[in-house]
Specification:
The complex is a heterodimer of chains A (514) and B (241).
Chain A: E1 3-7, H1 11-17, E2 29-33, E3 40-44, H2 46-50, H3 59-62, E4 69-72, H4 75-90, E5 96-100, E6 103-107, H5 112-115, H6 118-131, E7 137-141, H7 144-153, E8 157-159, H8 165-169, H9 181-190, H10 195-199, H11 203-222, E9 237-248, H12 251-271, E10 274-285, E11 305-315, H13 318-331, E12 338-349, H14 365-379, E13 390-395, E14 404-407, E15 428-442, E16 445-451, E17 454-469, E18 478-488, E19 494-501, E20 507-513
Parallel strand pairs in A: 2-4, 7-8
Antiparallel strand pairs in A: 1-6, 1-7, 2-3, 5-6, 9-12, 10-11, 10-12, 13-14, 15-16, 15-20, 16-17, 17-18, 18-19, 19-20
Helix pairs in contact in A: 1-4, 12-13, 13-14
Chain B: H1 2-14, E1 29-30, H2 35-41, E2 44-45, E3 49-54, H3 62-75, E4 80-84, H4 91-96, E5 104-108, H5 115-131, E6 136-141, H6 146-150, H7 154-164, E7 170-175, E8 186-198, E9 208-221, E10 233-237
Parallel strand pairs in B: 3-7, 3-8, 4-5, 4-6, 6-7
Antiparallel strand pairs in B: 1-2, 8-9, 9-10
Classes of the chains: A alpha+beta (514), B alpha/beta (241).
């Protein structure tokens, strides 16, 4: 049996500052918690501890330390950091236990031949955590609790050989076992201050004085407790969150922060050989209290601003995702400065395709998404009738005139090669919307058409071709008489399709045969 | 001779390829789907700018030719992009012409033809050319004001011609007047067509538009020398004929 424990010292501090530029090894940092009026130091890092900052101090007391970084505790950031640690461990073992905030235990039994010696595995695990922005300690031992105590009590990578647990742990302070305060007081009064001293006590006498709790602590100190770990399920989505010290009101600096979040999210995806095809971005906006008055135009800003991106193919490319987010936010900018960003990526399997030498030319799906976003930025998203301005046209199954829909364009359509038509078909060039016209009618037939300020004499006319539909719906009802006409004249000469709307009695030019 | 070889070696050592004659590989052609035009031009050149224009303006067959090109592209399994400057593309006509609509990226610019829609059309064409991957990029400026199209600087056309050289697809501009000049590898000028009517002269409701006869003129071709006397003619039949 072989277990590794990934331990993050001062986890609340590291979780809160993981996405910042703060160097936690040198710069003092403290996390504040509690009600806004009575914030107290909840956690500190080593540098802050050396400067005399400790838990329970008030904000004012903490601020006496020069250069200290103070942050409010963020449970969401702690959750997402814990998820990062779990994913880190998943890279080494399929059985991972999320033991406590900042503590993850992985079952490495049988992985030595694949991953190397225990020290190598420990080093790789530590490096993986460092890449995710943590300063981590790793313990490797034959049981989970010994691995945990080694990781939390020793520095760097601690590997404890099987059978030498008691000796290896003997110098660790008793506080590493995290006993109850009452038991700790008793042990302290006995002069028991490290694991070795506790392990050497007679068990029966210990049970008589401290009960079962004392025996459990002694077995833990000896490294004898052998328990099954409780594996956790890998998350179905990856969440990254950052709370900004100062709200961002420009898109360019916002892109820097998004880039960092996306890089971390895609690194986590890569670690699990997964990709994403849906991204949800939630921006919490900073709204001043005087702008939250009811009925003011800024009232709607109070809600978190959400944007969702859907991709046709799953990707791990953070640059592609960033570009799409930038284009989307440029088109739909938030209405107030952003103070908190939460990025959730749904996980999906990577798409593996084997392209052939003789496959027809097709746009690359990732690049195409950026192109479509750019095109939308130039021509707009929808027209007055709610149809997309950029997409693939689709003729609807209806006899109504000019009845079509524009669907989102996808370059992953299956390749089907068809024979072409032997001769070209006459095309109609539509006037959208139809051009209003004045038509001179003689003996029931059009004799002259005036439109766009020009007059054309009808040389030949064919019609009327009558059609109607949707008579049950007044708004969508249509009833018309179509004519195909050849017009003569200087400016409008050509072959046109004109129609008379039977409901209004007005004439229109629908299009030109071209 | 020895000194010539020495000079040559010295030049090539400093400027590799300086004395190598660059031979351009023969251009791949995209059939237009109209045999009369393909016979004279060999098709529409890929990796080059093609211009389809019509001085007559209306009913000259430029849309028919464009849809035929799009049908040829999409039916071969490739994708076509259409930049529609005046939103005049008729999906029903295109479907009847054999265009696979799911393989068409339709970009609808401003509703009213004008400077803004023309600007949008050139911007979107630029974005599409940069993206690549399309077998055909067609820019329909057929309804745009001739004066505005003529005002497009030659440098713009030149830039498109240079960029498309590295692209495996064809770039086609449909305009009301020839504007790209020497930047176009092929310029086709279409004349006003004459309609074919069934039962001409009879009662209007018994008459039927069965097709239109169109005439094309090859104004410029970098692949074959244009012959003024050759004016390919083709018939576009109506859907119901």
């Amino acid at each position: 049996m072989l277990f590794a424990c990934l331990y993050i010292p001062d986890f609340p501090v590291q979780a809160a500052l993981r996405n910042s530029d703060c160097n936690l090894a040198e710069q003092p940092a403290a996390i504040l918690d509690g009600p806004e009026s009575l914030l107290k130091v909840f956690a500190v890092n080593d540098a802050a501890r050396r400067s005399g900052i400790d838990r329970g101090m008030t904000r004012l007391q903490a601020e006496t330390c020069i250069g200290i970084v103070l942050r409010k505790r963020s449970p969401i950031q702690e959750e997402s950091s814990q998820a990062v640690l779990v994913e880190c461990a998943y890279g080494f073992s399929p059985r991972v236990e999320s033991a406590a905030p900042g503590i993850v235990i992985a079952d490495l039994t049988g992985t030595e031949s694949l991953l190397g010696a225990p020290r190598q595995i420990g080093r790789a695990l530590q490096r993986c955590a460092e890449q995710c922005g943590f300063i981590a300690k790793v313990g490797v031992a034959s049981n989970p609790d010994t691995a945990l105590h080694a990781a939390s009590g020793m520095e760097g990578i601690a590997v404890i050989a099987p059978g030498k647990e008691s000796v290896s742990l003997s110098r660790l302070p008793i506080e590493v076992l995290n006993p109850d305060a009452s038991i700790l007081d008793v042990l302290d009064s006995w002069g028991i201050r490290d694991f070795g001293a506790l392990a050497g006590l007679p068990p029966i006498s210990l049970v008589e004085r401290l009960g079962q709790q004392g025996l459990i602590l002694q077995r833990l100190a000896r490294g004898e407790v052998q328990r099954e770990i409780v594996p956790c399920e890998p998350p179905l989505s990856i969440q990254e969150c950052i709370e900004l010290e100062e709200a961002i009101d420009l898109l360019e600096p916002l892109a820097f922060v998004l880039n960092r979040l996306l890089e971390q999210a895609t690194a986590r995806l890569r670690a699990r050989s997964l990709a994403t095809d849906v991204i949800h971005v939630t921006l919490e906006l900073e709204v001043h209290p005087d702008r939250q008055l009811k009925g003011s135009p800024c009232a709607s800003v109070r809600e978190p601003y959400e944007r969702n991106l859907k991709l046709p193919v799953p990707t791990q490319d953070s640059k592609l995702l960033l570009k799409l987010l930038q284009l989307d936010l440029a088109q739909h900018p938030p209405k107030a400065p952003v103070k908190k960003i939460t990025l959730v990526t749904d996980v999906a399997l990577l798409r593996h395709t084997q392209t052939g030498l003789f496959e027809p030319l097709a746009p690359e799906p990732g690049q195409l998404e950026i192109t479509l976003s750019r095109l939308n930025a130039v021509v707009g998203e929808k027209d007055a009738e709610g149809r997309l301005r950029v997409g693939a046209p689709e003729v609807l199954d209806s006899h109504a005139p000019d009845n079509f829909e524009v669907r989102p364009f996808r370059s992953l359509e299956p390749v089907t090669i068809h024979e072409c038509l032997p001769s070209p078909q006459l095309a109609l060039r539509i006037f959208r919307p139809p051009v209003s016209a004045r038509v001179e009618v003689k003996q029931g037939n059009p004799a002259g058409v005036v439109f766009n300020g020009s007059k054309g004499k009808v040389l030949i006319a064919a019609g009327p071709w009558r059609s109607n539909g949707r008579w049950w719906n007044r708004r969508e009802q249509w009833d018309r008489e179509e004519w195909d006409v050849t017009l003569g004249g200087d400016t409008v000469a050509g072959i046109y399709r004109i129609f008379r709307d039977s409901l209004s009695g007005l004439w229109f030019v629908e299009g030109m045969y071209d | 001779m020895a000194s010539l070889a020495l000079i040559r070696a010295q030049v090539e050592s400093r400027l590799p390829g300086a004395l190598t004659i660059y031979t351009r590989s023969e251009r791949e052609m995209l059939p237009s789907g109209i045999p009369a035009i393909d016979r004279e031009t060999g098709g529409i050149p890929k990796s080059a700018l093609t211009q389809i224009c019509s001085l007559a303006g209306s009913s000259s067959g430029k849309t028919t030719l464009l849809l035929s090109l799009m049908a040829q592209t999409t039916r071969r399994g490739e994708f076509a992009a259409l930049v529609d400057a005046s939103d005049c593309f008729d999906p029903a006509s295109a479907e009847a012409s054999g265009v696979e609509l799911s393989r068409v990226l339709w970009v609808r610019c401003g509703e009213r033809p004008g400077v803004r829609s023309l600007e949008q059309a050139f911007k979107t064409a630029d974005i599409l050319v940069q993206n690549g991957g399309f077998g055909l990029i067609a820019v329909d400026l057929g309804n745009a004001d001739e004066r505005l199209v003529r005002k497009v600087p030659l440098t713009t056309w030149f830039r498109f011609a240079r960029v498309v050289e590295k692209m495996p697809g064809a770039l086609v501009f449909v305009t009301s007047a020839p504007a790209a000049r020497s930047c176009a590898a092929l310029t086709l000028q279409l004349d006003r067509g004459s309609a074919r009517w069934e039962e001409e002269g009879a009662l209007t409701h018994t008459q039927l538009l069965t097709g239109v006869d169109f005439t094309a003129e090859i104004v410029r071709s970098s692949t074959r020398k244009p012959v003024q006397s050759v004016r390919p003619k083709f018939i576009a039949r109506s859907q119901w004929a």
